[in-house]
Structures are given as structure tokens and as C-alpha cells.
Amino acid sequence: MTMFRMGEAADLLGVSPDTVRRWVDAGRLAATRDDQGHRVVDGVDLAAFVRAQAGDPDDRADESSARNRLRGIVTAVVKDGVMAQVDIQAGPFRVVSLMSREAVDDLGLAVGSVAIAVIKSTTVVVERPTSHPDTRRNGS
């Protein structure tokens, strides 16, 4: 069982530790105390909380087999004669896409515009941190 302290949970959720504490105090997120008296959140409970907070996919999600959709703001567009690089900041995550210049122009992508990065699950690599201090087992 993986346990997370308030600050660790906050880092994973992209919010402040005070926000996590308020959610715990309000009963929205379950927490217990570890052997040192720190409040901790079980990883399973944290995952359930995040899943419950996730918004419904937009209507266009039904038109695509890709289910991983990250809404964000375009922070950079670099074009050459044929290709373009588009950077999107989706919450704490930077997503970089290489596409044709024509696609960028057709979509009207420019710095400051809202875009949705659609990620097909067959091309997503999942890793676990090897010795990251935010990954705790059994509250240790």
C-alpha cells in the first residue's frame, strides 16, 4: 500500500498542500495518521478522488477512439517550410507535438489559443520512478 503525505499528494494533484488539507478537513478526501503523526492519504483513495474530480470528456471524444485528452494553452508554435512544432501547457504538463505546417494553419493554432492534445494509448510509455522520494510504501 502506497501512502502519501499532504505535500506529496498536493504535488501529484498540482495543487497546494493547504488545498489538500482543506479537502481532508472537509471530508472530501480520506486521510489517516502515520507512525510519526503526519496525515497521509492512501494511494488507492487518492486515485479514486482524482478519478471523481475528472471532468466529462467533451462531445468530440465520441468521434475518436483516443480517450486521453489534455486541454491546455498553446505556448509556442515553430514552423518551417513543411513541419511545425506546437507546445501545449496542460496544467503542469508540457505536451509537444510535431505536425504539418498545413495542419497548424488549418487548426488556427497560435500562441495563446486553447488546444486539446489527443494521445492514443498505444503510443504512451508508462514508467515508475526508481528512487523518487514522493513514492512511499507502508507510510515509510
What does the model show?
This protein is α+β, with helices and mostly antiparallel strands. The protein has 2 domains: 3-53, Multidrug-efflux Transporter Regulator, Chain: A, Domain 2 (Orthogonal Bundle); 59-122, OB fold (Dihydrolipoamide Acetyltransferase, E2P). The chain has helices at residues 6-13, 17-25, 43-53, 101-107, and strands spanning 3-5, 32-33, 39-42, 68-79, 83-90, 93-100, 114-119. The strands form 2 sheets. Strands 6-5-4-7 form a 4-stranded antiparallel sheet. The chain has a 3-stranded antiparallel sheet with strand order 1-3-2. It starts with a strand and ends in a 21-residue tail after the last strand.
Number of domains: 2
Q: What is the CATH C-level name of the largest domain?
A: Mainly Beta
CATH architecture of the largest domain: Beta Barrel
Overall geometric form: elongated
Largest sheet: 4 strands, antiparallel
Mean pLDDT: 85
CATH level 3 topology of the largest domain: OB fold (Dihydrolipoamide Acetyltransferase, E2P)
Major β-sheet strand ordering: 6-5-4-7
SSE layout and pairings?
Blueprint: E1 3-5, H1 6-13, H2 17-25, E2 32-33, E3 39-42, H3 43-53, E4 68-79, E5 83-90, E6 93-100, H4 101-107, E7 114-119
Antiparallel strand pairs: 1-3, 2-3, 4-5, 4-7, 5-6
Helix pairs in contact: 1-2
